[in-house]
Every structure is written in C-alpha cells, then in structure tokens.
Amino acid sequence: MVLKPVEIFKRQRPEQALRAWCRTTRRTATIMSPHANSEAIDSYSPPPVKAVIPSRLYAIADTPKVSSLANICDRSVTTKNYPLASEVQKNIPIYNLAKYNPDKTAANNLQDEWYEVLANGPGVFVVQNMYSDQPLLDETNEAFHQIIEREKSHTKGDHFAAGGKNDRIWNSFSKHGLQDPSSFVKYYSNPWLARVCEAWLGQQYRVTAQTNIVKPGGAAQVSHRDYHLGFQTAEGCSRFPRGMQHASQFLTLQGAVAQSDMPLESGPTRFLPFSQKLDSGFMAYRLPEFDQYFNENWVSLPLRKGDGVFFNPALHHAAGNNTSQVDRSANLLQISSAFGKPMEQIDAIPLVKVCWPEIQQLYKAEGLSDRVETVIAAIGEGYPFPTNLDNRPPAPNGMAPANEQDVIREAITSNWDTEKIVSALTQMRVDGRP
C-alpha cells in the first residue's frame, strides 16, 4: 500500500513530521531560489513560549471564594484516623493524658499524632487532665487574682474583643513567676507542656502566656487567625510573600489551659476544623463572607479545669460569648519556635532570681528529671542567636555558643547560689551585645 504524503505525516511523531516538512520546503525553495539557506531550514525550531511568572503576593483585590474554604472543611475524622485519641467529638480529637506516660520515648507516638492533627488534620486537639493537680491550679488562680487586683486601675484592650469586658493579664508567664515562685515552678515544670510544644515546634521553644477571664455577659470575639500574620492589617499581610504566609503557622503553637470548668454556655473557644489548610487564609479571614461562614459552621467543646486545648495558629477561631453565670478563666499559651520572634519579651534573669530556691529544691528531690528540664526550657532562652560572636564564640567542639538553658543547667547541677547564676546570665547578656 502506497501512503499519501498527508498520511505519512499523520503516522510520524511531531518532530519527524516537522523535519519532513522542512525537507520538502527546502526542495521547493531550492527550485524557486538557488540561494535558499538549506541549513537554516534543517535547524528550524519553533519560537520559545514566554513563561508567565505568578505573583509572589496575595493581592487584596483577588478575593478568595468562600467555596474554597467550604470544600476544605467538608471533611470528618474519627478515632480510625487518630487511634491514640480517646474519642473524637465534632472533628476534634480528645486525648486523656491520664492514660499515658509523659516520658519522651513513651510519648513519641502521641507527638506524631498531634503533629498530624495540627498540620494536616482538624488543626486542633484537646488534652484532658493535662493538669491533674487541682490545688496547684487553685494556687495559680490566686496568684492571677492578686496580679489582676494590682493592675485594676488600668483598662487594657484585647486583640479581638473590646477592652473592659475581660480581666486580662499580659505576660502572665513572667508576672506569675514574680508573684508566686512556688506555684510557677510547679506549673511550668509539667512534662506534658514540653511534649506538646516539642511535637509542633521541636526543641528550644519559647513559652509566653496571657491570662484571660471572661465574665458573664462577655461578648464573643470576631473570627480570626493568630500571631504572626493574624495580627497584621490586610494591607500589611499582603506584603508578605506566599511562602512566608504558609510558613507563619509553623512558627507558633497556640494553646490554653482551663483554669476553671468551661461548660458550653460559658463560651469556650470556637474552632473551624481544617481551616488552616486554606493557603490564603491570613488574607481571607477578615472578609465578611468568611466570618459569616465561620459563624455558621464553628464547633466548640466543653473543658474541665486542668484540661488543655492546642491548635494551629492558622486555624480560624474565636472565643465564644459567656451566657453562663460563672467566669470563664484560661491561661492562654503562645509558644514560639526558636526561629520565630515571640509576641512578648521574657526576661529570664528576674525569674531565675526569685525562682532559684524552688528550682534547686526540685533538682535535689528529682535530679535532672523531666520536670526540671521542662521548667528550665520554659524560663531560659534556648536559642543563642543573635549574639556577638567576637565575645561569645562557639565552644571548640561546638557549632554555637552556650544559651541561657545551658547556663541554668550547669548552675543547677553544680549547685550555684542565686548570686552566681544571676551574675552569669547577666554577663552572657552583656557579652552578646555589639
């Protein structure tokens, strides 16, 4: 069978067909013009396609669709997805810590599951019995009460609620330590706090805390995302490239310890499970239609005194309105990665100065136990940078100079007195300056 020229082209690969066409064209051109450039025709290639580079930014004018968020949130999970959870309610996994050992090795599987929940799952989980020592919670609440009474003369604003509606203690972490070193050391030496923080942030995290007490009649917050980019204006947020917007959620862990029972009518935090997966969510949450979707679809769980709840800062959430007759009290925990800037400044030196006898007592009773390591991690800065490397070079066999936690650990194991450890930390700070 003799194939026609068109059929030959059809049966050839595109590049073969193009070369055959060029040869035919060359012969025709040679007949028409003896000066035709046959080499140029043989080496012909189509012009390159100009690449379209997408914008690195989310533009304010490019309003995302609520349907995108709805599709993301249209999921459900069970204990089959998270087998270590005691139960899953309203798409929120619940873990009863009374069943588990906070030892690092034993808790490793729990941490894997928590990471998965925060990164790819609902974005929030509850840990029951995180603080089972009820007298300790009472001591802590008394310390908070004394701080609040001392600060009553100043009306403070809230991020997403009107000032004057709540009792708020900014930097309750430092103020707690200075007010009552005994309950502070016991509270922040809880190994479960370390296990949760390490699951999302790794080591050398920085703990900050703010206490919030919402009284009966307290209004709900508007839905939002949290620090860092959650505390920017829409215009300010739009200046951060997409990659930084996605990375922001991995720099912080949000949490709260229930300092009182929180029945549903008291307004515990409302969550929109899976909403942290919306890439443009730091731009979208401010839009009225997204707030409306949140208000139509949020879920909330009651908490008992001593329970904890932890969530991805990119999760859309809001504190609820308190329609009960009791105060809703929470110690809000905001834990930062070693590679991020905390929202509040923590000064370890005055805390070490007042808490040193309590830390020494704990060390004498337990040695360098998990509880001792946890309180060291809470008080001291674990990341040594930025610093002055002329004055504080790395050790001969090290990659980085000592950090505050290293010095505190050496001091506690070497039985330094208060004056010596305070002097060492002060000198480290002086040496680190330009």
Automatic annotation (TrEMBL):
InterPro entries: PhyH (IPR047128), Phytyl_CoA_dOase-like (IPR008775). One of its GO terms (biological process) is fatty acid alpha-oxidation. SUPFAM superfamilies: Clavaminate synthase-like. One of its GO terms (molecular function) is phytanoyl-CoA dioxygenase activity. Pfam families: PhyH. It comes from the Eukaryota. Coiled coil: none annotated. This is PhyH-domain-containing protein.
